[in-house]
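Record Contactin associated protein like 3, 1185 aa.
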Amino acid sequence: CSNKNQSMKAFLLQSSSYRGAGGWSPLTSDQFQWLEVDLAERTRVTAVATQGRYGSSDWQSSYLLRFSDTGHNWRQYRQEGSTGGFPGNSNADGVVQHRLQHPVVARYVRLVPLDWNPSGRIGLRLEVYGCPYNSNVLSFSGHSSLLYRLSPRPRLTPSESFGLNFKALRNSGILLQAEGASGHSLTLQLERGKLLLLSASAAAARLALSVGSLLDDQHWHHVALEHHGSHLNLTVDKSTLWEQIPAGLSRCVGSDSSSDPLTHFHGCLENLVYNGLNLVELAEQGDQRGDVTFSCTEPVSVALTFHSAQSFLRLPVEADMAAAAAGLSVGLQFRTWNEAGLLLTFDLRDGGGAAWLYLDGARLHLQVHKPGRAPLELSAGLAVNDGQWHSVDLISARGRLSIAVDGEDGGSAHASPSFPITAGGQLFFGGCPPEQNRQDCLNPFPAFRGCMRLLAVADRTVDLIAVQQRILGNYSHLQIDMCGIIDRCSPSHCEHGGRCAQSWSSFHCNCSHTGYSGATCHSPIYEQSCEAYKHKGNTSGFYHVDVDGSGAIRPLLVYCNMTEGGTWTVIRHSGPELTRVPSSPGSFRHQAHFQYAPDGRAAIREPDWVLGSRWADVCVPDGSLLSWWVGGPGSGQIQTFWGGADPGSQRCGCSVEGNCVDQRHHCNCDADRPEWLTDSGLLTHKETLPVRSLVLGDAQRPGSESAYRVGPLLCHGDSESRPVGGETSYLHFPTFQAELSADISFLFKTGSSSGVFLENLGVRDFIRIELSSPTEVVFSFDVGNGPLEVRVKADLPLNDERWHRVRAERNVKEASLRLDGLHSASLEAPAEGHIHLQLNSQLFIGGTASRQRGFRGCLRSLQLNGVTLDLEERARVTPGVEAGCPGHCSSYGSLCRNRGRCVEAAGGFSCDCGPSAFTGAFCEREVSVSLKSGSSISYTLEEQQVDEMNHSTTSSSSSSTLRAENVSLSFSTGQSPALLVFISSHRGQYLALLLNKREELEVRYRLDVNKEAEILKSEVKNLSDQQLHAVTVSRLADAVSVEGLNLTCDLDFLDFSGVKSLVLGRLQRESLDPGLARVAALGFSGCLSAVLFNSVSPLKAALLHPNPPSVTVTGPLLRSACGSSAPNSGSAETGRPLANAGRRDSALIGGTELLFTSVFHLLTKAKKKKKNPNNNKHSTDPFYH
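=>
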């Protein structure tokens, strides 16, 4: 439908014909012109259409739309995600129609031209489209209320709903109370311009929801309240929140007339509908009790918007006020988000000087400067930048000066100046004109950005409509008869609990203590898995992991156990290590519940993770269920199997392995023997985990007891994907949903100089990341404001076949791009403009829709908004793309230390510490032992080991002869003399390292059995000082060097033949030289660490392997950390990502198995030998993990 009317010089043409002559064209074409249309009654406006003036070169190329119910207090229409401006015409004849995204109900429409034909003037023909709007209205005075009882009471239904529109004249007050017979009630209440939903019961009241902001703007707002069972949805305008509440919603509405009048609503309600009943219409028929009127009356209040730093209002001082030299009175109301800004300034009337009334630090200040007098300063109020309306009064009369904020309640300050405070010829509000060298308006403070209203000078209200018509005063960059304040924090764009703060033109997110960073707290600061920390070189310790990156799951504190065999994530629960359950007469069952760190379950929520928990099983012969555990996703399900068995089997691991103590039962603990029996095992079925609760039945049986222990949840493995593509090959996925925020991260490896990593297109919008040159990555996008780019340039080429990490983020505040955690760039979003990224094509990975500029190389660990794309699975079914891309060691091999070898793995790499004297994830942890003087470790070398030593050197000697060796170790001792290492051969040759009685290190080589040993002595003394010293002895043929002590010499004999053993500590052998024999008999007392003879580590063999045949230990032997430096373990707060090479993602990408385990042991002891089949325990207790 269309509405046609005529106002002033406006011509509204019929929708069927735009060929009429003429049109509206103001005499002056500037930014102060508008065309206003009175639709005669409130109408639902759905669209507008414009033309230029007929037969002319006059048209407007862009414009704003504003709406009003009263012809005052205008509201500017904003298309969602835009500045609010509409594109206009490009000629005088074409018709341009715009359908409003959200229809507006209003009586008055105002079109404000922004730009027009530079070769002509503003010219306009306009058509407004809309439909009739019917409403029933209630008006509340702030002291009135309406009580409506539904009689007879409506039938109980599973769902209920309220709907209403309201217009508030005060920022606080109860809109609606709904009470039910069950004692529960709901209250909709305005509190400082926000809508609160309060849920109350007989016990207490609690705040359920808070939504909206600045709802006291005297415009209509829509509220919908829907109750479905225990779920409640609250919608205010376009914002919706939900909550769970008790069932039994209200059966009466209204504000209790006996309640505090300060909480009564002041304003209008419209179309109050409960379950399809229009309560306002029923109230008009007399079925109500209260003091209300059935029309919406509101005072006319003209507001000013100071929207830029150039905004100001100048008012003349009236003649009678200027004559009243003894006094001054100025009042106003303002609302702003800014902490600072000038409200008012004026020159003093007599003797020069000036006064400034301004905001600073969110307080009101007054400064008065007069030549020859001390400056006068007053301050009042607190936190007045909260967006609420605040009143200000400045009064100077009879020698007393005062300022007050919100009356006396908000704060006031007083002074008694020695000179009169009166205004000169002009009052300036908000700022000063831009003219250079002005003397009547000097402003040393920031300009005011916000709204003002109810300006009063000399106790007379200023006619701001006269100001708008240029009859009174002067102004610039003001929006008159509207308040354009916007709450940029409602809804908040700060994610993950970030706290939003704002100014007039922007907002800021405080991300402290959230675990996230960035302009909107979107980017995780923690890695997503322990494996990722390992790829950074971190060793075992506590770390925060963020399993879904920028997703909703919060970071979780876990213990990362980095071992030589793999990386384990340990998630502990709240239960004790071991719990004993004695016999409890009268109590049939014992229950236990296990809680994990917040969101701990989410770390294992995905179906590709293999889960496990270790514990026991108890069964009875007849199969009756006495014990069980609860596990699985959601609330979990009862599980009747135990560690080592299959789900639903009602068995324990001993039954599967066939070694239960009583073959008639499927669990050891069912044997009912008068001794402790144990069932334990791993639960590895992911669909049954985590274990959350455990129930042990038969707890009342006298004389029996049990015990259980539930170990932590363990995760092993990682996930990633690695496709290889060609220039015309790509993978495709569903459209990337990233309207307001998007983060994209991945790793790439390539030898090509350019290529597109990913692209997603819309009608006009797009997002793309590409390698534009060998040293530059580009992140480009368009959200409707035109194409934008963020570029990062690397110092070295990126096509080096090494892994590089890219992270791009785009939100309503900025776009950023980071490369390898070292180089970054960002681009701030426009203050006003489109913010929604509208995409509709498939997401292309490794190429584009046009199949040009494709990427050749490897991609892995691709995540979009915290969700990992399974590239490898898609690659298997895509021609031209291969799954799999090895090469981790080329990038991360340097993390393997101390001669450890990097080994490629399916999802990353590992360090083989076999050739090293060290152990650990990176061969970084020394293996140390504390020896006593009577202890020794003897390692027997096999001929095969000597062969391997020869192959690892350049020696060309026989397999049993060494012509080169390396011996390295660390030691600390207070003993001298002392034998450190003794290596001997079948032919009587030996190599000995010892400390002599002068605390010097001696290296004795006896390779020629016909001669005395050749001795190298260090010049460094005091080596038995209890400090740790490191020594490395290297020989190649006849050249010997001792690293660390700067010793070198040449031997007379080259071959070390038939090497048979290595001894650490005490040695007794008659064939030794007398001097050496005496030292060897004393042994060694102290610390030996990282002992390595070529590739043989005797300490690792003795301490890390059970009963090795090649090792003989004599005397006490204690593993110690005496030789280890402080481990580089992680802390709870470390771990900003550098190169996220491995991930524990929300979806598997590499096909690598991820194993979760949790250890559980169940032990039972029966003191009665009498068998009672009906009292046997069934070890299928619900264990919730």
